[in-house]
Structure formats: C-alpha cells, structure tokens
Design brief:
It is found in: Cytoplasm. The protein is built from eleven helices and 17 strands. By secondary structure, the protein is an alpha+beta fold. The protein folds into two domains: 193 residues, Rossmann fold; 156 residues, Up-down Bundle (Glutathione S-transferase Yfyf (Class Pi), Chain A, domain 2), CATH 1.20.1050.90. Strands 2-1-4-5-6-7 form a six-stranded antiparallel sheet, covered by helices on one side. The longest helix is centred in the middle third of the chain and has 38 residues.
C-alpha cells in the first residue's frame, strides 16, 4: 500500500496543501519548523487516531480554524481508497471512506503506517505509558476492533475510580461497597483481553526485533522484551511506574504481592482469574488511595539489552537504535499479516541522529518497503539510495514539485462542504 495523494486543509500550519506521492522513497526537506513533520503526522494520524507529538487534537487544527481536514488516497494494486478525516475543535471528529460516512475508529483498518520520530526515544527512556501506547497502537492496526475494547476498558476504569474516590470520601469499608464487585467483573473481562493481546504481541515482536536491531547495529546485543504485569504483583510507585515484583522464597515478597497470593501469580492460572485475585488482594489499599492499582493501565514492558534494562544502562546510540528497531519490528509484523501489502514507513528526522554507517545500514534495511517517507532538515544526512524523489517544504507550503513526480492520480471531485458533511 502507498499514499498516492495527500490533501490537507487547516491542518497545523497548512491552510491548504496538495502532495502527490508514489511508491519508493520520498524525502521531505526543509529547515526546522517549516512543516515537514506536520505532513507525515497527518498520515500517521489516519493509522493510529493520534499524534506522535501531542495527546489531544486541538493543536492539530490551524489557528483561527474550527476544523482540520486530512484526505489521503491509498493505492494497493488496482484498488484505491479515499480516506477523509475531519478534526473538530468542538464535537466529535468525523470520517469518510470513499465519500461514505464511517466511524473514525474504522480508519486504522485501511491505513497502515509505522512512524519513527525523535520522540520515540521515550519508548526506551520514558514512562510506562509511552510503551503501553506503542503496543496498543500496533494492536489496533492489526485488529481494529481492539480500539473499542480499549475505549470500554478506559470507561469502566474511570467509573470504578470514581466509586473508589467516593467511598474514600465517605469512609466506607470494603464490606459496605458491594457495588464494586459489579465493576470488578467488567474491568476484569475487558482488562484480561487487553493483557493477553499485549502478551501475545510482545512474544511476536521478539524475532523481528532482534533481526531489526542487528540490521542497524551489526552487533548482537540481545535486545528483548519482558512483560511487567501489575496483576502478578508488580508494585506501582507513587509516580505510577510499575517495577517487577520481587522474586524469592516468599520472605522477600512485597505485602501487595503476598496479598494477591501464590495462585494469582502462577502463569498457569488464566489471566482473568489472576486479575480478579489481584483486585481482591488490593481492595483495602485501593479504598485508601481511591484509585485502581492493578490492570493493563498500570503494566509495563521491560526493554533489555544484554540482559540489562535499556532504561538506565543503554547509551544514547543504543537507546536510539532500540527504539528504531522496535518500529521496524512493528512494520515487519504489519507486513506479514496485512492484506493490503506493506505499511507506509515514515522516518521523521531520523538520520540526523545516526552515524554514517548506521544511516547506510538503515537505508538498506528499509529499501524493500513499498513506500518510505523521510523528513530531513539537511538533505546530506539522507543516504543517496533514498533521495530519488525530493520535495521542498517552506513555511507551510510545498514550494516545488519533484522533477520525477508520479503522474497525478484522479481523486473524485467534492467541494469542501461535502468533505465536512
């Protein structure tokens, strides 16, 4: 699959933009702050329903506008799909597929992209939420229905936390809060599915992660992923960052891990049973703090190099390579199980952080993907094999078309009011 045409209206610093693209590599080049990343950010949003730079949508709408429109024509063989997304300052976002209204959460079913950006260094060095988001975005691209499961889990979690806070304020004990059992049942059903999906994904990532890391670094540093589950006794600090539960003969186990019980921490026990046992063991502490202390919202995945946590031990270069290898591993999984071909691979300002050898090795590793979009402030940072097509960006404008641009792909005409319908 590749993006044949990208149209933006009032997105970030673009009042209007039209960009025709073809298979192969395209470099978007321009000084910092001109809008290169904004273009690829819009493509990434269609696939993940989120920005890799901000948590909300307000910043994506150009100042003074009430909504932004992203329109992309996707091509796979002889098939064409026109995806349109309207981001609104007020009210829900709206989407269309081939001019027919669809739910916004349906878009990742058709748009598959993997975007790597400088912000991805936080996957290695940042908080657990960054790593959870990385896994969840990939899960949704592979199985869009999980977006609904995640949304339902978040809703139940908020309602359960509200009940816990209310009980704390009123001084109610566990024996007086029978309604909590109802929310527990729903939380466990949804949460167990998310945990199992993440565990399966982590296992699938192992092989392509090792291959991708070696292709970039040309060294065997043994990159690996280890799930850290709060339902199995991982203890959350005050900053909500889980750490693995202590291992030993039981004497060293934390009070919370002991409360959960040995049956709950046994991998042979179904996830739902372990989750339910964890909630029972933590109920007193949850009532004291007014917050849910176990579940996929508090899990983490430990990134290891040579058996040591990458966070705290890996150098800047190793951390950068690990994060990039994770994105390439994600692209490989999407490539394996997608009926629409390769995902669009986006490298946002990546080559400036790599030495010459790693730039060349990365260029070789991604050369087989159907479409690769690269942003760079300095064209000389991009390896020559990726510079066949160059687009210059200046102050929110595409200032010149590439000399070897592909022939225009016709897009069904529609006025702006129809696009906003």
């Amino acid at each position: 699959m590749h993006v044949a045409r990208l149209s933006l209206t009032d997105f970030r610093n673009y009042e209007r933009a039209e960009l025709e693209l073809g298979p192969g590599a395209t470099v978007l080049v321009g000084r910092n702050g001109q809008g290169k990343t904004n273009l690829v950010e819009s493509i990434g949003y269609l696939a993940t329903l989120g920005s890799h730079r901000v948590s909300g949508d307000q910043a994506l709408v150009r100042a003074g506008a009430e909504s932004a429109i992203v329109r992309a024509l996707l091509v796979h063989g002889d098939r064409q799909l026109l995806l349109e997304l309207q981001l609104n300052r007020q009210g829900a976002n709206r989407a269309q597929l081939n001019r027919s209204p669809v739910k916004t959460r349906e878009l990742p079913r058709y748009a598959h992209t993997v975007l790597f950006a400088p912000e991805d260094l936080a996957i290695v060095r940042g908080e657990p939420g960054v790593r959870r988001r990385m896994l969840d975005e990939l899960l949704v691209q592979r199985s869009p229905r999980l977006a609904g499961v995640m949304s339902d889990y978040d809703r139940v979690l908020r309602q359960r936390n509200t009940l816990l806070k209310s009980a704390r304020a009123r001084g109610l004990g566990a024996d007086k809060l029978t309604t909590l059992d109802i929310w527990d049942e729903r939380l466990v059903a949804l949460g167990a599915e998310l945990i199992d999906q993440r565990l399966a994904l982590v296992a699938e990532l192992a092989e392509p992660l090792a291959a991708a890391y070696h292709s970039i670094v040309d060294a065997d540093h043994g990159p690996s992923l280890q799930p850290v589950l709060s339902i199995d006794g991982a203890v959350a600090d005050d900053d909500d960052e889980p750490r693995p539960a202590p291992r030993g003969d039981g004497a060293d186990a934390s009070a919370e891990a002991s409360a959960v019980g040995s049956a709950a921490t046994s991998p042979a026990v179904p996830t739902a049973d372990r989750f339910a046992a964890a909630l029972r063991g933590l109920r007193r502490k949850e009532l004291e703090r007014g917050v849910t202390l176990a579940g996929p919202h508090r899990d983490d995945v430990l990134l290891l190099l040579n058996g040591l946590p990458a966070k705290g031990y890996a150098s800047h270069g190793e951390s950068w390579s690990f994060a990039l290898a994770l994105r390439l591993a994600a692209a490989e999984l999407l490539r394996r199980d997608s009926a629409t071909g390769d995902p669009v691979l986006v490298l946002d300002d990546v080559f400036a952080e790599l030495d010459r050898l790693r730039r060349e090795r990365l260029a070789a590793a991604i050369g087989g993907y159907e479409q690769v979009l690269v942003t760079a402030a300095v064209l000389e940072d991009v390896p020559e094999p990726l510079t066949a097509t160059i687009v210059h960006i200046d102050a929110g404008r595409i200032v010149d078309a590439p000399a070897n641009a592909p022939a225009a792909v016709p897009v069904p005409a529609a006025d702006e009011e129809e696009a906003k319908a």
